[in-house]
């Protein structure tokens, strides 16, 4: 893993800290994780392999991302605070979020420090044609996790009757 990979993952974990503190749900706070994830994905995802069982791996890990994101979103408390929604993640949401990040980081570290032969054997046995498929699967897993969590928060905020303001990212959190 490169320094950029570590910094990106530290940034994603930092989002958990902000979620635990709680924040007003605004368009900017909903869009920023999506835009950031798409930007990072464009740096790593250049093709989606379709040979062999590559798509099975990719769709499978994307579904894991959706499940983690949905879970994190569903257990995040969203309440009406005046006319705005206020979202606050708890321990379970943080654990689900970090589990996805940790799985991706752990896999990358393992492959880079002795696990490559095992992944190669697994890939051959299950007709996964290249490391590109693994990369695409993990990138799409992250995108699916962020998108599904954001979608759930958006729906919960709308269902609360809140007005989703334009709002900035750097405003102080609303008192709980």
Record the SSE blueprint.
Elements: H1 3-21, E1 23-24, H2 27-44, H3 54-74, E2 77-81, E3 84-88, H4 91-125, H5 131-159
Antiparallel strand pairs: 1-3, 2-3
Helix pairs in contact: 1-4, 2-5, 3-4, 3-5, 4-5
Give structural notes.
This protein is 69% helix and 7% strand. With 176 residues, it is mainly α. The chain has one domain. The termini are far apart.
The ordered string of helix (H) and strand (E) elements is: HEHHEEHH
- The oligomeric status of these chains comes to single chain
Main sheet strand line-up: 1-3-2
Rg, rounded, reads 18 Å
Mean pLDDT: 87
- The CA-CA distance between the termini, in Å, is 38 Å
* Structural class assignment: mainly alpha
Proportion of beta-strand residues: 5-15%
| Portion of residues within helices | 55-70%
Biggest pleated-sheet summary: 3 strands, antiparallel
- Form type: elongated
Number of strands: 3
A few lines on this structure:
This protein has 176 residues and is mainly alpha-helical. It has five helices and three strands; from the N terminus they run H-E-H-H-E-E-H-H.
Provide the descriptors you would attach to this structure in a database record:
176 residues; mainly alpha; three-stranded antiparallel β-sheet; elongated; 5 helices
């Amino acid at each position: 893993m490169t320094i950029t990979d570590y910094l990106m993952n530290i940034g994603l974990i930092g989002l958990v800290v902000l979620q635990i503190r709680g924040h007003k749900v605004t368009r900017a706070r909903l869009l920023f994780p999506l835009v950031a994830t798409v930007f990072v994905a464009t740096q790593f995802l250049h093709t989606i392999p379709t040979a062999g069982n590559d798509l099975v791996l990719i769709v499978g890990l994307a579904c894991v991302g959706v499940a983690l994101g949905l879970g994190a979103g569903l257990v995040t408390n969203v309440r009406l605070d005046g006319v705005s929604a206020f979202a606050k993640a708890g321990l379970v949401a943080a654990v689900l979020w970090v589990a996805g990040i940790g799985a991706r980081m752990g896999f990358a570290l393992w492959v880079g420090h002795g696990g490559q032969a095992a992944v190669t054997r697994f890939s051959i046995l299950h007709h996964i044609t290249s490391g590109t498929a693994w990369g695409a699967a993990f990138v799409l897993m992250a995108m699916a996790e962020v998108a599904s969590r954001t979608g759930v928060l958006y729906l919960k905020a709308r269902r609360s009757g809140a007005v989703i303001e334009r709002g900035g990212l750097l405003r102080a959190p609303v008192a709980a």
